[in-house]
Amino acid sequence: MSYADQVFIQNCRDILRQGVWDTALPVRPHWEDGAPAHTIKLFGVVNRYDLRQEFPILTVRKQFLKSAVDELLWIWQRKSNNVKDLNSHVWDAWADESGSIGKAYGYQLGVKHSYPQGEIDQVDKVLWDLKHDPASRRILTSLYNHHDLNEMALYPCAWSMTFNVSGNTLNGILNQRSQDMLTANGWNVMQYAVLLHMLAQVSGLQAGELVHVIADCHIYDRHVPVVEELLSRTPYDAPKFTLDPAVTDFYAFTPDSVKLEDYQAHPLEEKIPVAV
User: Fold this and answer.
1) Secondary structure of residue 16 in the 3-state scheme
2) Which phi and psi angles does 132 have, rounded to 5°?
C-alpha cells in the first residue's frame, strides 16, 4: 500500500468519525446550483512524508502527475497568474475575462524584493540560499500578502513553504490554510514533493521530508459518498519516481522531467462537483 494512501485514508476516516460540521454557519463556497457547500472538518492536521522512502502519490484514485507539475511550474517557475499560461482548466472558475486570477499565487512569487544579493524574487532567493547559505533558518516563501488580498480571486490555500537543510538533506514544511481532501489533497502533496525533489537536485542536495500542515482539513457534504467509496478500495504499492538527472537549472524543468514507473491506480470517479 502506498504510504500516501495510508495517510489519506486515515485523515478521511478521522474527519468522518471525529469531524465538526459547519452546517449551522454561513459559508462562502457554493455549488453550481447555488446551494451552500458545507463541510465536515478537523483542525490542525499534520502529515509527514519521507521522500527517501517512496514518492507520495495516491492509488485509490488515479492522479495525473504531469498536470500537477504543470500547475506547480506555472506558479513557481513561470510565476504566472494567468490561466492562459496553464495547460489545464483547474483555475478557470476563478479567472476574469482576460484569464487573470489577480495578484495571487505566481504573481506573489514573482514580485522582486531588495536583498543583499540584489533585487530578486522569492524563488530566486530560495535558490540562492540553498546553494550559498544552506545553514540559514530563514529560507521560506509566503503567498499570503495582506496588502494584496483584495485583488486576489482566491486567497492562497497552500500559502507558505519553509525549507531546511540538515546535512545534505533538504526538508520542507508546506503550510495550508484549507484543504479539500477529495479534490486537492493528493494533488498538493505530490506537487510539493516534486518541488522538493527539484530544488534539492539543482542545489546538490537530497530530498528528505515533506511535512504538510493543514489548518482546516475538510470534506465537502456532496463529496462524502465519493470519499466513502474510496475508503472501500484496496490501494496499490507506490510507484517509482524519477526526475531527469540532466537538469541542473530549476527554470529548465518541464512536466516531462518527471516520470513514474509501475504506477497502478483505481480509476477516477464520475465527474465530481467542485465548490467555488
Assistant:
1) helix
2) -110, -20
Question: What residue ranges of the chain have pLDDT lower than 70?
Answer: none
pLDDT attached to residue 271: 83
Place of cell 514544511: 173
Residues in the chain: 276
Identify the helix (H) or strand (E) that includes residue 188: helix 186-202
- Calpha distance 174→48 (Å, rounded): 10
| pLDDT, tens only, 142-157 | 999 999 999 999 999 9
Active-site residue set: 157
Tens of pLDDT, residue by residue over 17-45, are 999 999 999 999 999 999 999 999 999 99
Q: Where are the beta strands (DSSP E) in the chain?
A: 20-21, 39-50, 112-115, 118-121, 140-142, 158-166, 169-180, 206-220, 240-243, 258-261
